[in-house]
Amino acid sequence: MRLENKVAIVTGAASGIGEAIAKRFLNEGAKVVCCDMKETCSITHENSIYVKADLTKEDETENVVKKSIENFGKLNIVVNCAGVTGVGSLETTALSDFKFQFDVNVNGVFNMCKSSISELKKQKGASIVNIGSDLGVRPIPERIAYCPSKAAVLMLTKCIAMEYAPYVRANAVLPGLVETPMLKERFDTVEDADAFRNEMANLYPLKRMGTTDDMANAVVYLASDESSFMTGENLGVCGGSLI
């Protein structure tokens, strides 16, 4: 097992990509602290606990780290997957919406990294994996807040990698469009869901959208010792959209 004897925090673990990562970590032998804003989490494994937290509040991210130490004795890995998106142009996006996306996508990552870094430094081969987006490096219309917020996550990752090498590695995964429950709900709102799905898939050179397992595969690699000579990298898992 690639993560045996490791303890990990995974944010956004109640659904979608975060849930897939948490389940994969458990299958790879890790003990996992699942974290999300929701009241409950479907993951009820003997080697996991669930901590409800608002990541924009530093005292709550500190509590997540505290619970990991109380329950499992250490912390080796932090995966920052929780995030929000929004649609809007410069003219149609309210400042409050712009701030909200930055608060969750950037400040939430900052808070969790800051709260956990002292514990991570105690462990050999500690790793931070932040979930960015291919839209953090390639802008598209109507994402005036989301694209800059994800770009900030990528630079934050590099800054942490530089500051804490060689004690803690920090890397980012850049997903493309991923078939999550949230995206499937969007498909349900259009008249021809199959045609819309094909349209989205054709945006990528590999002619398909990503799956949550695709993302979990990449995160396991970056969290494990297999990537021990990687830090400060942005790993595109986006079907070739960055070509």
Q: Can you walk me through this structure?
A:
It comes from Candidatus Epulonipiscium fishelsonii. This is 2,5-dichloro-2,5-cyclohexadiene-1,4-diol dehydrogenase. This protein is of the alpha/beta class. It has a single domain, classed as NAD(P)-binding Rossmann-like Domain (Rossmann fold, 3-Layer(aba) Sandwich), CATH 3.40.50.720. The protein contains 7 helices and 7 strands. The chain has helices spanning 16-27, 58-72, 95-120, 146-164, 181-187, 193-201, 212-223; strands at 7-11, 31-36, 48-52, 77-80, 126-131, 168-175, 234-237. It has a 7-stranded parallel beta sheet with strand order 3-2-1-4-5-6-7, sandwiched between helices. Helix 1 (16-27) packs across helix 7, helix 2 (58-72) packs parallel to helix 3 and helix 3 (95-120) packs parallel to helix 4. The longest helix has 26 residues, at 95-120. The protein is globular, with a radius of gyration of 17 Å. It starts with 6 loop residues before the first strand and ends in a 6-residue tail after the last strand.
Count of domain modules: 1
Widest β-sheet, arrangement of strands: 3-2-1-4-5-6-7
Question: What portion of residues is helical?
Answer: 40-55%
Assign the structural class, choosing from mainly alpha, mainly beta, alpha/beta, alpha+beta, or little secondary structure.
Answer: alpha/beta
Instruction: Based on Cα principal axes, name the global outline.
Output: globular
Features:
243 residues, Rossmann fold, seven-stranded parallel beta sheet, 7 strands, globular
Question: Can you summarize this structure?
Answer:
This protein has 7 helices and 7 strands, in the order βαββαβαβαβαααβ. The protein has 243 residues and is an alpha/beta fold. α1 (16-27) crosses α7 (212-223), α2 runs parallel beside α3 and α3 (95-120) packs parallel to α4 (146-164).
